[in-house]
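Please describe what follows:
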Amino acid sequence: MSPKYIEEQYSWGTLRKIEVGRHYQIIIHPEEWGMIQGLSEGETIAFKDETGKVWEVSRSEAGFTFRNGGINGRVVWIHLHR
């Protein structure tokens, strides 16, 4: 299943969501998105979204990879080509 990328505009900025079916959702506020966009290839950062999940984000030539190891004991990899 491919991730769905959603942008919602608010007075305080753009809220971004990445959804994979009904199982996984990443909520990204403008501050986090700025850090993600600032990554160079091979760099990784971590942030906690508003649901309390901690996501590691790395950038490669192909795009961004979001990783969370705490959902039902499984590692979740979401690739976003942006």
